[in-house]
């Protein structure tokens, strides 16, 4: 029962480096999401993909790009990492528009020095 | 006014106590509601959906009041393991984006 799988679980980067966070789900869900969560803060939506082939900005998209590679996979890319992007990143998926709950991966803890 | 509001707490209760949290929402087009549990530095996990008629899962009871636009979560016979942050989530009809509350912190002590 893998559900939503995120890699890596931990990463330390230097300012200006780039990296891609990977997310895959095996529940045949149409919609996928990327969130960040900072200490003492709620979840903030970065980007989402309502269905394969589409992506849209969320609340805090600046500094990020995404790719919906296929129905299973949704990646998040930091082109030039900044210390303000130090956070815990969660990927989530859900079955359909708004009616079903989201299922979350166990997160990627990213530190940018 | 925030779309989804929760009392951040913390609610500090002894083992065995009954505790209740409320969550208010502002959009009358909200159609589906959920409670999630989030442990420190872990991912949110679905605790239960909230149905119009109210629903129960063991020690947990969820209720929806559409007229007053709030949902509630009642935890009976609290356990130490119930200590966590409880997130309220609201989905608006026709939207792909759920709205999360900031969460209510619960601490159950011996």
Q: What would you note in describing this structure?
A:
The complex is a heterodimer of chains A (113) and B (110). With 113 residues, chain A is mainly β. Chain A contains no helices and eleven strands. Chain A has strands at 4-7, 10-13, 19-25, 31-37, 43-49, 56-57, 64-68, 74-78, 87-94, 103-104, 108-112. With 110 residues, chain B is an all-beta fold. Classes of the chains: A mainly beta (113), B mainly beta (110). At the A-B interface, strand 5, strand 9 and strand 10 of A face strand 4, strand 5 and strand 9 of B.
Which structural class do you get from the secondary structure elements of chain B?
A: mainly beta
Are there runs of chain B of 5+ residues with pLDDT below 50, and where?
A: none
Rg of chain B, Å, rounded: 13 Å
Rg over CA atoms of chain A: 13 Å
Number of strands of chain A: 11
> Largest interface, with Cβ-Cβ < 8 Å?
A-B, 23 and 25 residues
What gap, in angstroms, lies between the N and C termini of chain A? 35 Å
Shape of chain A: globular
Q: Compute the number of helices of chain B.
A: 0
Report the portion of residues of chain B in β strands.
over 45%
User: Which structural class is indicated by helix and strand composition of chain A?
Assistant: mainly beta
Question: In sequence order, what are the helices and strands of chain A, one letter per element?
Answer: EEEEEEEEEEE
Number of helical stretches of at least 4 residues of chain A: 0
Give the rounded overall mean pLDDT of chain B.
94
Strand content of chain A: over 45%
């Amino acid at each position: 029962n893998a559900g939503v799988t995120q890699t890596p679980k931990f990463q330390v980067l230097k300012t200006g480096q780039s990296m891609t966070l990977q997310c895959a789900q095996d529940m045949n869900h149409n919609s996928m999401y990327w969130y960040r969560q900072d200490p003492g803060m709620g979840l903030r939506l970065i980007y989402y993909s309502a269905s394969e082939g589409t992506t849209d900005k969320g609340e805090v998209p600046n500094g990020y790009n995404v790719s919906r590679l296929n129905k299973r996979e949704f990646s998040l890319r930091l082109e030039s990492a900044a210390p303000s992007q130090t956070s815990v990143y969660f990927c989530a998926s859900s079955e359909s528009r708004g009616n079903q709950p989201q299922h979350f991966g166990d997160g990627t803890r990213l530190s940018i020095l | 006014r925030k779309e989804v509001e929760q009392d951040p707490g913390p609610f500090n209760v002894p083992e065995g106590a009954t505790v209740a949290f409320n969550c208010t929402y502002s959009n009358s087009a909200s159609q589906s509601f959920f409670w999630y549990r989030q442990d420190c530095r872990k991912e949110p996990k679905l605790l239960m959906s909230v149905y119009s008629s109210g629903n129960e899962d063991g020690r947990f009871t969820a209720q929806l009041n559409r007229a007053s636009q709030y949902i509630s979560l009642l935890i009976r016979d609290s356990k130490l393991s119930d200590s966590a942050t409880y997130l309220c989530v609201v989905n608006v009809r026709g939207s792909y984006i759920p709205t999360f509350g900031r969460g209510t912190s619960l601490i159950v002590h011996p």
